[in-house]
Every structure is written in C-alpha cells, then in structure tokens.
Amino acid sequence: MTARKLAAGNWKMNGLAADLAEVEALAKAHPSPAVEVLICPPATLIAPMCTRIAGSAIAVGGQDCHAVEKGAHTGDISAQMLADAGATNVILGHSERRTDHYETDASVRLKTQAAWSADLVAIVCIGETLGEREDGETLDIVGGQLAGSLPDGCTAANTVVAYEPVWAIGTGKVPTLDQIAEVHDFLRARLEERFGAEGAGIPLLYGGSVKPSNADEIFGVSNVDGALVGGASLKAADFGGIIEALERAE
Ligand code: PGA
Question: How far is it, in rounded angstroms, from Cα 188 to Cα 104?
C-alpha cells in the first residue's frame, strides 16, 4: 500500500473571521488538487470555514480534542463537537500541546481513540527536542512517542503521523534531508512492524519550517508523504506553493 499525499495547515492560535478570505482564495486557486489538502483553524473558525469553502476540495480539521465525548471539562472540546462543526481530521499531541498542556503519549493515545470514535482522522505529532538530537537520542525518542501515542487499530484511513522536530517548529531551521530520511524510514519500518500493510499506507508528514522554497526538496525525501505546515499555511499564496510542490512530487 502506498500512502496518500497530504498538505495540512495548522493555523495554531491565529485567525479571525476576516482571515477566512485566505482559505477562500486557496480554494479558488486549487479547485481540484492532486493531493489532499487540509486546514486546521482555531476551533472558533471551524464551522464558518466549512461554510465558506463548502463544495471545495479543502478539508477542515481541529487542533486538539478531549479524550471523552462530553461532560464537566470547562474550556475543552470533544471529537464529536469538532465533527459536528464540520471537521474531518484533528491534530493530536502537537509539541506545543505537549509543552503548554503537559500532554503525554498516554493522553495522546486516548485522544486518538476519541477521534476515531467521532470518525475523525487523527494526525498524531511526534518529534525530538534539540537537546535530544544533540545527545543522539532522536530515534529512541520518536520511536517511544510513536509506540506510546498510537493505539492498536491504526489504519491508513484513520491515522496520519507527523514528524516535527521541536527545534524546527517556527524557527526557520530545518533538518538536513538525510536527517529527515533517517527518521521517516525508521518510522515507516516501525509502522509496518506494528500495523502490517496498513502501516505502509499511513501518511508520514514532515513538519517544521516548511515553506514554498524548501518544499520540493523535502517532498523528494523517501517516506515523506506531505507536510504539516504552521506559519506558511496562513497565507493562500504560501500554502498554495507548498500544495503545488507536493503535486509535483506525485
Ligand atoms: P511551522 O510550524 O511550519 O511554523 O514551523 C509547524 C507546526 O508546528 O506544525
């Protein structure tokens, strides 16, 4: 099985109603992309974004969900609520969530199951810190995060894995292509070991300072099936350039 190609944008805590114009422009510029395209805006914009680009090829996702369906959890959002608002995917275990909200592999695993129960695709994020890389621990760290964050039952349809070195996020620093290949090949082998043919089809995204200017070379790396893009997903022109690079890599 070959993994499908996905260009996913993570708006993080950016975006007001006026910014929906960017995603409308993106949808107009890419009416039938050859790859999957996803934007994950802040929760407040999920429903209005779905309305604004209804009928387009762009999917909309959340940036986190709670592990349970409903209840006394002030300020949290469940997977069912995201789906109800029109989301089809949810990013889980982003390094900013792991740092700011003390999320662990165990909590990400529960959230992944919650996402599936609402028929959402879980985009599970893992990645090492600079200190871990300098200490030569990268593969141990990402291997442990992968094993701990993914529940049994991952399929090519219900799960995406995003490798995002923490030191590359929002910094303009990008690993060498060899470093990306080493991690992606390792993750692919681990996914196949655990999930068999489904593991071969789980999309593996690279994330961390992806831009139109470096996307072609990153998408040329083995086992890179797309990107999770932060800053460069906020502007239609930039994200459009990344979509086009992924189309070229087909
Ligand atoms: P960045 O963020 O593209 O701004 O580096 C990536 C991410 O955090 O998903």
Answer: 22
Of the candidates 61, 68, 59, the one whose C-alpha atom is nearest the C-alpha of residue 122 is 61
**Which residues 6+ apart lie within 8 Å of 142 measured at CB?**
126, 127, 128, 163, 183, 186, 187
| 39: its two tokens | 């934007």
Distance 207 CA to ligand 1 centre (A): 6
Residues 133-175 have pLDDT tens digits of: 999 999 999 999 999 999 999 999 999 999 999 999 999 999 9
Buried b (16+ CB within 10 A) or exposed e, 219-240: bebebbbbbbbbbbbbebebbb
Catalytic, 94? Answer yes
Determine if ligand 1 sits within 6 Å of the CB of residue 166.
no
Confirm or reject: Cβ of 208 under 6 Å from ligand 1.
yes
Sequence-distant (≥ 6) Cβ neighbours of residue 139 within 8 angstroms:
182, 183, 186
Q: Does 226 contact ligand 1 (Cβ within 6 A)?
A: no
Catalytic residue among 128, 164, 198, 244: 164
With a threshold of 0.90, does the pTM exceed it? Answer: yes
Q: What is the pLDDT of residues 160-171, one digit of tens each?
A: 999 999 999 999
